[in-house]
Structures are given as structure tokens and as C-alpha cells.
Design goal:
This protein is an alpha/beta fold. The chain contains 19 helices and 17 strands. Strand 2 and strand 3 form a beta hairpin.
Length: 590
């Protein structure tokens, strides 16, 4: 053996030993016959970890069980290279059964002559336990066994061969409030929260080139002549006047000033922005300042108003790997309305048991799942909730949750963020569900995180927010609807804040740091809460409200919401292309 082969052999042995895998000399020699053996051995090491019965001893039987296409092809070339005859038609194991083909036709393609079977020295290389062949009948039995093994092995791999198994997990939690959101609820906490919000939003606004000319409000109020000015600040109050104009007060750290946006403004975009402007939002104003007379405060007649927004040329991060992420929320396990039948279809889809070839290929790309709150229905979330429950114990709900999540393949990583039905505080930001409730989930490999959080998977950043504030904005902004969450999500991005208005139904905890500022632009923005699945995009950011696995409740009916249970949001991490997959479709009924 040449020196370079010896070095390769030593490297392969080291790779196997470091991975805790044992091999016999004959298996080692077999591996060295593979094309690009070091690369193939690394693939084998990665794939055998997913085999449930693998006990660290690499055998030919174990190699047979690996479903990776590249390994399968490499093994096929070595195993049959020396025993191919003219009667053996080499078959592509990676292609599915032809629609017009039959099992008999497929088996025929794997015919091996009896004379070839008698070549005992070569046949030992085939991963079947064949020790001796004494009679013609035994030869035929072995021949049939080889044909059956080839066909059944290739057919089972062809049905569902998830490429996601070939990739290691690559994720990071970039933002999670868990353990960092302590508060005493005192006045100073409220002040510090507001101050932090103002400073963060002002810094984001200052990244826009046109705002560099903005002056602080105190200096503007000192002016004694009519002059063009620019200011930025938080909206302290906004209302529509009898004449249809918009009157607002703008506040910064120095003072407060009045602003008028005329309804007949030459730039009608100003009116549209003003119509969607709420208290506590950061805005930038340009206009003419009229100083007050006889001690009255001056006023800005605005001719331009804008919010922080997302740059139109934002370039999102994408993955180099052909993997996907599933975004779901609001399963409400424990509720009488939990759609367990649809959930079981979801599990069957992930395991490649339903769907056509294209749908199974899509399922095989899924590497991550994010559950954006309300995994369980909880206890005592609203009055008379107990009558709506089929599981009325919180620990039993989490036990059931662990049970239904266990059907998800091990090569898929699950992230679980808390919602308003979880046993955590209702005010946002929320910590992750405490371990005393989620221990079984954690032991099963689920990553529990707070809300909001940012999860990075293969270089793609997903902003996870349960969506409590969506209902507030839909009530306050004309034209917004609960059944069309994407437009509301766009407004949150324009404001660069997940709960821009303080003091409505959305409870906000007075922490010293404002965790709701969208200071890092996401590649994917994921909300839930209102049980409507909708996808869209805004300045190259993919948006999805992930729907639910719960049929309509009385509360949803009271809000005029018609839920869309069982619709998955699937995003390809390499393209950021989103797909809505409806499990209620007849394609997934079997």
C-alpha cells in the first residue's frame, strides 16, 4: 500500500475512534474501497448517529440501514463492482418506481446469475450473512434473498429519504429575555423603560440620512421667527381635529411641541402615515415653525412625517444549506377544540408517510420547528375556562404535549417560546416556561425560550413574537383587521417596536430594558396569537402569522376571528421562499 493510502487509512481510523465507533479490519478495508473514502466515512459517522439500534459497532448490516443517497450509491458501486455480469442491469437506487413499473419489473432489473452467486469470495462482500452455498436450491434461495433485499431496501429509502438528516444542527439564540427581566413595578422602573425605549428608537431613527438635520425641541421653541425646522421625538398625543387635520404633540428629552398635519397636504403620504400613527411611536417631522404669540407655544406645520421603518434595500441573510423551518403556534393542547387529527397529519407529513413525491421532498428538507406560544391551553387563563378543557391539570397538559411532540423526527430541532396561555406572567416580555412544567420537553431536546426571542438557524434570523399587541393595533388603526395579520405586522416593523402603544389591552412589564424594540432587523418575522395563517413580505423580510391547531372558540368568535387550523408556514432557509401547506387538503387525508 502506498504511503498516501497509509496516511488516509490512519486518518479514517482516527475519525472513527474519535467518534466512538468500532470497526473490524475487514470493514475498514471495505471503507477504503469507497470513492473519496474520508468524505464518505464522515457522512457515515454523521448518519449512523440517527440509527436507533446503533451500538457503536459498524457492520455491513448497519451500513445497509443508512438512507443517505450519496452513501447508498457509493456502497452499491463497491458491493457489486466485481460481481456484475451482462445479465445484471445496474439500477439507479435514488429514482422512484416508475408509474408504469411493477415490483416484478423492478426485481428483474436486479437479476444475478447463479454462476455469479457461486463466487463465494466475491459474495462475502455483500452485506448479507452468507456463509456457505451447498446446493442448487440454496443458491436459488440466496439469489432471491439478494434480489428481495435490494428491492425492499431501495424501495423503503425511495419512499422518504430526508436530506435534513445529513446536516448537523446549526443554531443560536440571539435574543431571549429569560432570566433578565426582573422588576419591582416601581415608578423608577416605568421611567427607565420609557427612557430606554426613547433612546433606542431615536438611535434607530438617526440611521436615516435625512434626520441628521433634526434639532432638539427646546432649541426650536426658542426661535422667534417663522422658519423651516426638523425634529424627531415620541408621539405624546395624536387626534383628528374637527376640520379633519391631525394634531399631535411631539416629545423628546428636552421639551414638547405641537404639530399639525393638514388633511390637504400636498403629499398625501403624510396623511396616510398620520392615520396610522399612535401614541408612544417615534416619528420624524419636517415643516414650518410658527412661534407662539403673547406667551403661547409655537407650532410646527408639518409637510413631511415618517417613522423609523426598515430600509427598502435590506438584504436578508440566507442559508447555504437546502433546509427548511416550520413555524407554528397556538396548538392549545388540553382544550376541547385542539385539532389532534390535524396534528397527527402533521406528524405523518414530517415522517414522509403522506403526500406526493414533491411534498415528501419538502418534508425531508425540514430541520427546525418553532412553536410560537400557546402550546398548551393552560389553567385559569380566562373565566370559566375549565368548561372548555378536556385536560384540566397543567402538568397533564404538558405531559400530553411531550407525547404529541415525540412523533417529530429526532433530526428536527424544536424551539418553544412562551405565549399568554403558558404558566408564566401575562405581561410581555415573558420568560421561558419554568423547568418544573417543561422538564420532560427539555429532556426530549426541546429548546424553551422566552418571548420575544430571536432564533438563528443556519445564518437566518427569525424574530419570534407571540403577537399580543396585534389586537390593539387592529382596534386603533382604520382598515386593519384581525383576519389579515400581515398588514399589522408590517406596521410593527415600520414602528420598529412590537407593542408601540402603551396602556391598552397588551400588558407590558416595566423592565429597565425595553425588549420590544426591533433593533436587529430579522430575516423572518413570526407571530401567532390570533389563529390566522397568513404569509407576506415587507422590504425583503418574510412575514408569517402561523395560524393554529385549535378550532374556533367562543372568544375567537367574539372577536370576529375565523381560525385557520392546520395550515403550516414552511420557509426555505436558502431562499426565504415561504409556503402555506394546508393539512386539511385531501392530499394529506390518508
Amino acid at each position: 500500500m502506498k504511503a498516501d493510502n497509509l496516511n488516509e487509512k490512519e486518518i479514517i481510523i482516527r475519525e472513527l475512534v474519535n467518534s466512538g465507533i468500532n470497526v473490524t479490519p475487514s470493514i475498514l478495508e471495505f471503507l477504503l474501497k469507497l470513492e473519496d473514502p474520508l468524505k464518505k466515512v464522515k457522512l457515515i459517522i454523521r448518519n449512523v448517529s440517527f440509527l436507533p439500534n446503533f451500538d457503536s459497532h459498524l457492520t455491513k448490516e448497519i451500513l445497509q440501514k443508512i438512507s443517505n443517497v450519496e452513501i447508498h450509491e457509493a456502497l452499491k458501486k463497491v458491493l457489486f463492482k466485481e460481481i456484475q455480469t451482462k445479465s445484471f442491469q445496474e439500477k439507479d437506487f435514488s429514482s422512484p418506481l416508475d408509474a408504469s413499473g411493477s415490483e416484478e419489473a423492478q426485481i428483474k432489473d436486479f437479476e444475478v446469475s447463479e454462476n455469479t452467486i457461486q463466487m463465494k469470495s466475491e459474495i462475502e462482500e455483500i452485506p448479507l450473512k452468507i456463509n456457505e452455498i451447498e446446493t442448487v436450491s440454496q443458491q436459488k434461495h440466496v439469489k432471491n434473498k439478494i434480489k428481495r433485499s435490494l428491492f425492499e431496501g431501495s424501495r423503503s429509502n425511495l419512499v422518504f429519504r430526508p436530506i435534513a438528516k445529513d446536516y448537523e444542527f446549526n443554531y443560536d439564540i440571539l435574543k431571549d429575555p429569560t432570566g433578565k427581566i426582573h422588576t419591582n413595578g416601581e415608578y423608577e422602573d416605568f421611567y427607565n423603560l420609557t427612557l430606554d425605549k426613547f433612546n433606542k428608537l431615536r438611535n434607530l431613527m438617526r440611521k436615516r440620512p435625512e434626520v441628521l438635520s433634526a434639532n432638539n425641541i427646546k432649541n426650536i421653541l426658542r426661535l422667534t421667527n417663522k422658519v423651516e425646522v426638523a425634529a424627531l421625538g415620541m408621539v405624546n398625543e395624536i387626534r383628528k381635529t374637527k376640520n379633519g387635520n391631525f394634531f399631535l404633540t411631539l416629545e423628546d428629552l428636552t421639551s414638547i411641541i405641537n404639530v399639525i398635519i393638514r388633511k390637504d397636504s400636498e403629499n398625501q403620504e403624510n396623511v396616510k402615515v398620520a392615520e396610522r400613527t399612535l401614541n408612544d411611536q417615534m416619528v420624524y417631522i419636517e415643516g414650518t415653525y410658527n412661534p407662539g404669540e403673547r406667551g403661547k407655544s409655537g407650532i410646527i406645520y408639518g409637510n413631511y412625517i415618517t417613522k423609523i421603518d426598515i430600509p427598502r434595500d435590506y438584504e436578508p441573510n440566507k442559508s447555504l444549506d437546502p433546509l427548511s423551518i416550520v413555524l407554528i403556534s397556538d396548538t392549545h393542547i388540553g382544550s376541547k377544540e385542539f385539532e389532534e387529527k390535524l396534528w397527527n397529519r402533521f406528524i405523518n407529513f414530517l415522517n414522509g408517510k403522506i403526500g406526493n413525491k414533491s411534498q415528501k421532498e419538502r418534508a425531508g428538507r425540514i430541520k427546525y420547528i418553532i412553536i410560537n406560544g400557546d402550546l398548551i391551553d393552560g389553567i385559569g387563563v380566562y373565566p370559566q375556562q375549565k368548561s372548555d378543557l378536556i385536560i384540566s391539570d397543567i402538568f397533564a397538559q404538558f405531559k400530553k404535549a411531550n407525547e404529541i411532540l415525540s412523533g417529530i423526527p429526532d433530526y428536527i430541532k424544536i424551539f418553544y417560546s412562551s405565549g399568554n396561555h403558558e404558566p408564566v406572567r401575562n405581561a410581555i416580555p415573558r420568560p421561558a416556561v419554568p423547568k418544573k412544567y417543561s422538564e420532560e420537553l427539555i429532556n426530549s431536546g426541546v429548546i424553551c425560550i422566552g418571548n420575544p426571542s430571536i432564533v438563528q438557524t443556519h445564518n437566518v434570523n427569525t424574530l419570534v413574537f407571540h403577537g399580543d399587541s396585534l389586537l390593539d393595533l387592529n382596534m386603533l388603526i382604520p382598515g386593519f383587521e384581525n383576519n389579515k395579520p400581515v398588514e399589522t405586522m408590517k406596521e410593527l416593523l415600520r414602528c420598529r417596536h412590537l407593542a408601540p402603544i402603551y396602556g391598552k389591552k397588551t400588558q407590558i412589564a416595566p423592565t429597565s430594558k425595553d425588549w420590544l424594540v426591533i433593533d436587529k432587523i430579522p430575516d423572518i418575522f413570526h407571530t401567532g396569537h390570533i389563529h390566522i395563517n397568513e404569509m407576506g413580505a415587507y422590504n425583503n423580510i418574510l412575514l408569517t402569522n402561523s395560524g393554529c391547531f385549535q378550532s374556533q372558540t367562543e372568544f375567537m368568535n367574539s372577536l370576529g376571528i375565523h381560525p385557520t387550523p392546520g395550515i403550516l408556514s414552511i420557509v426555505d432557509l436558502d431562499t426565504l421562499h415561504g409556503t402555506q401547506l394546508d393539512l386539511k387538503s385531501s392530499d394529506y387525508s390518508s
